[in-house]
């Protein structure tokens, strides 16, 4: 399946959605409390099952931020492995998904001019995850451990809302799933209770337009990969309708 951005078919009103991309380098310009509050409110405008609004954003500031980065870097150097609070990638990764992963990595390292065999260069870029890419705002998204996958789905919508809102006002952001591999350390440094699952980090601020990393461009699969139609056959559907009681009610 070939990848495509289909840029010419996008309704102008949807441009704001297609303009968002992950931003991994920021200027030093601070983000005002008012603006941050507006972005978080935009995130919270997301729909959620039964309007439960699961999840939380923890703003990591001051000494806690440097302590967290130090601890995560130490874990990396000492090859510390922690159990993630939730599963993410399929294991093993099927070849077609692996190809997408490699394409995303190539887009990132290509923008940075880091060659395939430059392990040190890749390592250096990876380590920037743990510094929240030096963004002025560093957030950790958490969710109560009692939520199932649906809660993560809801929080994902809020995360997208936050990223879209940031992009719409000219800011930039990047979710940092790399942090989810160090959930215990994050809980320990930030003194979070054991029942707060660590979902991801988020770097937020004003994009450094001159930074090569921000020239990373990813593509998307064509629509027919996501959209499938089902229309019959008629005999099969008629047989199913015949089996159902006619007074079925929706209890939602
Ligand atoms: C939940 C989540 C976790 C992510 N984790 C990381 C990360 O740890 N490091 C990173 O550089 N990018 C991370 N990304 C950014 C993705 O690589 C990026 O969204 C993807 O390649 C598509 O590119 P785009 O956001 O520019 O459209 C993450 C994105 C999401 C949604």
How would you characterize the overall build of this protein?
The chain has a four-stranded antiparallel beta sheet, sandwiched between helices. It has one domain: NADH Oxidase. Helix content is 40%, strand content 11%. The two termini are 38 Å apart. The model has no long low-confidence stretch (mean pLDDT 93). It has eight helices and four strands, in the order ααβαααβαβαβα. Bound molecules: flavin mononucleotide (FMN). Flavin mononucleotide binds next to strand 3.
Question: What's this entry about, in short?
Answer:
The protein is of the alpha+beta class and 252 residues long. The chain is 40% helix and 11% strand. The protein contains 8 helices and 4 strands; from the N terminus they run ααβαααβαβαβα.
């Amino acid at each position: 399946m070939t990848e495509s951005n289909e840029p010419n078919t996008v309704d102008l009103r949807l441009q704001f959605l297609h303009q968002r991309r992950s931003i991994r380098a920021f200027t030093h310009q601070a983000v005002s409390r008012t603006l941050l509050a507006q972005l978080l409110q935009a995130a919270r405008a997301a729909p959620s099952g039964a309007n439960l609004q699961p999840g939380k954003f923890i703003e990591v500031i001051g000494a806690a931020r440097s302590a967290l980065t130090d601890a995560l870097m130490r874990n990396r150097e000492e090859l510390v492995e922690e159990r993630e609070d939730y599963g993410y990638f399929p294991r093993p990764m099927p070849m077609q998904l692996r190809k997408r992963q490699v394409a995303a990595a190539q887009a990132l390292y290509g923008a940075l001019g880091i060659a395939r065999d430059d392990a040190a260069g890749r390592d250096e870029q990876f380590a920037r995850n743990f510094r929240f890419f030096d963004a002025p705002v560093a957030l950790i998204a958490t969710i109560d451990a009692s939520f199932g996958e649906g809660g993560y789905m809801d929080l994902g919508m809020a995360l997208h809302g936050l990223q879209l809102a940031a992009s719409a006002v000219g800011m930039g952001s990047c979710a940092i799933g790399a942090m989810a591999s160090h959930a215990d350390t994050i809980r320990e440094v930030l003194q979070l209770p054991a029942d707060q699952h660590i979902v991801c980090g988020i770097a937020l601020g004003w994009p450094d337009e001159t930074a090569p990393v921000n020239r990373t461009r990813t593509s998307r699969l064509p629509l027919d990969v996501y959209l499938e139609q089902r229309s019959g056959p008629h005999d099969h559907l008629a047989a199913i309708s015949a089996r159902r009681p006619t007074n079925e009610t929706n209890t939602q």
